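Entry 14. Ran structure prediction on the chain below.
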Amino acid sequence: MMRALKKWGGFLAVAVACTALATYVWTNNAGAYFSQDNADAYISRGNAKGDRGQYQEAVADYDQALQLQPGKAHAYDHRGFARFMLGQYQDAIADYDQALQLRPDFAGATFFRGVAKLILDQYEEAVADLDQAIQLQPDFADAYAYRGDAKVCLGQYQDAVADYSQALQLQPDNVHAYAGRANAKAGLNQYQDAYADLDQALQLQPDYAAAYIVRGHAKLRRGQYRDAIAGYSQAIQLQPDYAGAYFSRGHAKAHFGQHQEAIADYDQALQLQPDKASAYILRGHAKAHLGQYQDAIADYDQALQLQPGNAHAYVSRGHAKAHLGQYQEAIVDYDQALQLQPGNARAYHSRIRAKLNIGQPRNTIANYNQALQLQPDFSDDY
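Output, structure tokens:
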């Protein structure tokens, strides 16, 4: 991870008990003082464990601190970081929420909450948090770099390039920013510039797995699926526990028609990161391509548990149900998708097909016209 992820930052010293208090204060407040001291002691010990990479043990100490003093913002902040490093991103977000309610000026908590949301595919929410982190700390290079990542995921490539460039002005050796800018430039079809940024990233850090993933993305965009798979495989060799590398390689294999192999990669990605909704969706797509519609529905169900507002997952689950002849259930899914995303042409077309299959032709022409206005070249195949 970037050096920002390694910063524990702001470790608290153990408080010293006040022994010179007046008798009245001591009598009435002794319990509160002991709770304060003991809470700080647990936080300090948790910080020391976190420094050694003992994140689960650190979480236990922060738990104890919060039992003694529930309003301790730093305990929530540090526990959020420990959970982040354990890959427990939802729990980390909950801790950062609590820390920021108590201390809205924690730039680090806002930053890591944004990165956790980015990992969980919550891109717009991630941008909002990273905006806030930058407002609190304008020279926060990694906040610009990760905001660039979120903007790439939203297809805002030009804005992403600007963020990565700002990160590099603040921190010229930021490998993440070079690799990210390469990815954004590839999204703009500026492949020569993209490869130049990748070369720079690998000069700074030859074993930087993310650079090979970005190279794979660039190849994938150009339809060079074998080369894309090779890039992702190189990233996996360098970092075997990199969930994103398996996820991306699975995506490339699916494009190449290797759906069974893609499923194996998605399986591995989900073992490493069980809360990635997009991995369930893409694994569902691969299973649907193989005619495994019931299994595909199970994956879409899982994705929707993680992201109830994902219109794409509803449409995909509707398609799988339609292939099983469950047209009424499919219509329910298409309706839900359209509530979430009224401009979803695929949901309009598919709902029309499903209604025709159960003998409900009413308003068919009007609905087709609506769908064609949204996407004139749409194919109405499931």
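The CA atoms of residues 175 and 203 lie 9 Å apart. Will compare against last week's run tomorrow.
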